[in-house]
Amino acid sequence: MTHFASETAVRSLGDGRFEGTVGSLWSIGDNPNGGYLVSIALMAFRQMVPAHPDPLTVTAHYLRPGVPDTPCDVAVEVVRTGRTLSTGRMTLSQEGKTRIEVLAAFGELRDAEARETDISIPAPVLPDPSICPERSGEEQGIHLPLLERLDIRIHPDQAKAGAAGEPIVSGYIRFRDDQSPDSIASILMADSFPPSVFGSHGVIGWVPTIELTVHVRRRAAPGWLVGAFRTDDLNDGRMIESGALWDSTGALVAQSRQIGLLLLND
Amino acid sequence: MTHFASETAVRSLGDGRFEGTVGSLWSIGDNPNGGYLVSIALMAFRQMVPAHPDPLTVTAHYLRPGVPDTPCDVAVEVVRTGRTLSTGRMTLSQEGKTRIEVLAAFGELRDAEARETDISIPAPVLPDPSICPERSGEEQGIHLPLLERLDIRIHPDQAKAGAAGEPIVSGYIRFRDDQSPDSIASILMADSFPPSVFGSHGVIGWVPTIELTVHVRRRAAPGWLVGAFRTDDLNDGRMIESGALWDSTGALVAQSRQIGLLLLND
To answer: In chain B, whose CA is at the least distance from the CA of A234?
Structure first.
């Protein structure tokens, strides 16, 4: 069993209620990664809709930070199940407080091989992962336990905050245990790169997510995923970052967009 | 009172329950526009969080088509209210069946004038509205009651299906009664242009939305809104369309993204 599978696992208590544990090794500083928290909620939903194993569209609202190394409850409501889609709501709570709200539709995705693509977004051309520096929390002055579980490499021209000269970030991502990401893991991976606004503005503070939406488009082929993200809209303290992930065959695996708050450092 | 305000109005029944009516003049063929249905749900939520009048991020899942000229119920749950944000869930039902599920965060937006923009997306340059043809359902062979309420003009090079040669659509939109759109109306307007995939593929069928997310970025200045939309990702029968709206001062009013099903005509 992969670390991701065992550390997002939940146990059914019946009536759409589940229990699990938020692990300690998926955090940015003291806060569990948002995509990781969503993954736990989605694992609960997946158990309730076995005909539809893959998230097609997932929206999460972040109400309060999660608490690492602490139990969690997930309440699932299946809103509708049809022939090709199941739609559900999930609420993940810890210590009696709601942490995230999720609204998602699941279906069945094809493998990367089985494509009938009419329109797609080409993957960016990046230097080989061996010459892309690992993501680090050093410039931000924070510890990144997440790097125990994820191997994240940043484009060498974008690795230092401010170096890109524009609000972009790109690079590679894979699990440390080298397991292929399943369709739920691609949501975690769409939320694991440094904020792209650091590319233009440097390390300007903490960027808590208000809401994240990911559309998963295919099951990924084995190997590295490539990610590329851009902040094209920042005003009044709120920013929107859009991006995508591609697998090692160049197939588009997911599109993501999030709105976050820019909290400036003193 | 504007047509939009009176035809999205809901009456509180207490305990987060509201009643209203889905009007008959906001439809595409026989189906009420998705952004219009969401607007009714959001009007209910707005009543419950008076400190936070503006939608910042709204996600709607479309479970079943709405029914025009028919009463509706909206059930609202305020998930969390904080200092700057209120988060809620809404369920809009008609004839005993859930039609849409909504998850949204509201706050307070600034007017277009009061900008502190760090990064933005420039508005496209379009020909004057007077030489842009009105949206028509003729090529699709459907009646568009929506055009009784919305004046929608399409870029002359994109007005005929297939003419653009790529999956894009752009143009102008405003209320027929010439009232300025409030922040909720910008969600309707982000969902009222023809599917951009018609630009490349012609009129290939019906494109029901699975999920729509709109980020509202500013209150719009009076006058036309400009909209531009692109489908950059179509595979396995599902397409993602992303777009934006700008007001008459050129300020970015909203970003939108939706995933839809492409149902081919016989």
So the answer is: B119
The pLDDT confidence band at residue B117, using thresholds 50, 70 and 90, is low
| Residue A120 belongs to a domain | no
pLDDT tens string B217-264 = 999 999 999 999 999 999 888 999 999 999 999 999 999 999 999 876
Helices (H), A92-216: 185-189, 198-201
Query: In 3-state terms, what secondary structure has residue A22?
Result: strand
Max Cα separation, chain A? 53
* CA–CA min distance A119, chain B (Å): 5
CA distance B84 to A15: 34
Q: What is the DSSP letter of B69?
A: T
Say if the Cβ atoms of B234 and A79 lie within 8 Å.
no
Q: Hey, which residues does A59 pair with through a beta bridge?
A: A103, A213
Q: Across the interface, do A120 and B233 touch by the CB < 8 Å criterion?
A: yes
* Model confidence, pTM: 0.96
Q: Does A32 map to a domain?
A: yes
Residue A255, Cα to own-chain centre: how many angstroms?
11
Does residue B123 fall inside a structural domain? no
CATH of the domain at B21: 2.40.160.210
Rounded to whole angstroms, the Cα distance separating A75 from A69 reads: 19
Task: Give me the interface pTM, i.e. the ipTM.
Answer: 0.96
Number of domains in chain B: 1
* Interface contact flag, B87 A240, Cβ < 8 Å: no
pLDDT score for B193:
96
Q: Is residue B36 part of a domain?
A: yes
